Amino acid sequence: MSEAPSAQPLDNLFIGIAGIIGAGKSTLATALGRHMGLDVYYEPVEDNEYLADFYRDTARYSFATQIYLLNRRFQQHQEIIWRGRPAIQDRTIYEDAIFAKMLSETGLMEPRDYRTYLQLFKHMSNFMCRPSAIIYLDVKPALAMERIQERARGVESGISLAYLQALYDEYERFLYDISHRIRTIRVSWAEYRDVDEMADVIRREVLHATFLREVTAWDAPSRK
Questions:
Q1: What is the pLDDT of residue 3?
Q2: Between the CA of residue 217 and those of 54, 131, 220, what are the distances in Å?
Q3: Cα separation of 162 and 142, whole Å?
Q4: Residue at 1 is within a domain
Q5: In the predicted model, what is the mean pLDDT of residues 23-51?
């Protein structure tokens, strides 16, 4: 029987929030950052100079957009490690490959571009320290679509339910793989959970859990 990974002290905590578009990653990252005193690193959206072009002409700008995002998230990842402060990241660098794979499989990224992307990702991964844990917010595509429509970001207006379903399916495969290398906490996020409860879950699971853990309402400690 393999030994459990050694516990990481919470003063070196590095949490990644994962999930499909519209899951609620930024909302949770902000709340946990304030509650637990964590530096928060957000997914580059507002200042992403490729994003509008990507949604306007995906095939043309898919490679440039994915390289831009990979570079920005690698920069965030390294900054978190080198600063040595507890932090939380809104979408992890490991998820970037999900989007690149989908673009390739749907013919929206050329095979040679996808091969180049994977080679670059592989080389960069040699310089990445693993997060303490990844929290996966499990939100079904239909609900994610509702949340996307509610926040009404203009560049996201072209996202379809079929795209979100394909993304969700790919995330399921991603979870199986990543949970063998990084502690992964799966949380149903159909309803937003209390930030105190989530902080308790993180403290408990990061110190003791291994592989993939699915946290449900009855797993949380009772509160009096």
A1: 40
A2: 38, 24, 6
A3: 10
A4: no
A5: 91
Residue 107 in any domain: the answer is: yes
Q: In this predicted structure, what is the pLDDT of residue 114?
A: 97
Q: Is the pLDDT of residue 223 over 60?
A: no
In a domain, 5, yes or no: no
Q: How far apart are CA 98 and CA 83, in angstroms?
A: 28
List the structure tokens of 180.
């063998």
The upper half-sphere exposure of residue 59, i.e. CA atoms within 13 Å in the direction of its Cβ, equals 6
Polymer length of the chain: 224
Q: How confident is the model at residue 214 (pLDDT cuts 50, 70, 90)?
A: low
- Separation of alpha carbons 180 and 31, rounded Å: 28
Tell me the pLDDT of the chain averaged across its residues: 85
**Starting from the edge strand earliest in sequence, which strands make up the sheet with 212-215, in order?**
39-41, 87-90, 14-18, 133-138, 184-188, 212-215
Q: Residue 81 is part of which domain span?
A: 10-219
Q: CATH number for the domain including 170?
A: 3.40.50.300
Say which of 39, 90, 196, 219 is annotated catalytic: 90
Q: How many domains does the chain have?
A: 1
Q: Does the annotation mark 194 as catalytic?
A: no
Contacting residues for 183 by C-beta, under 8 A, at least 6 apart: 5, 132, 133, 134, 205, 206, 209, 210, 211, 213
The token pair that represents 83 in the structure block: 């600063």
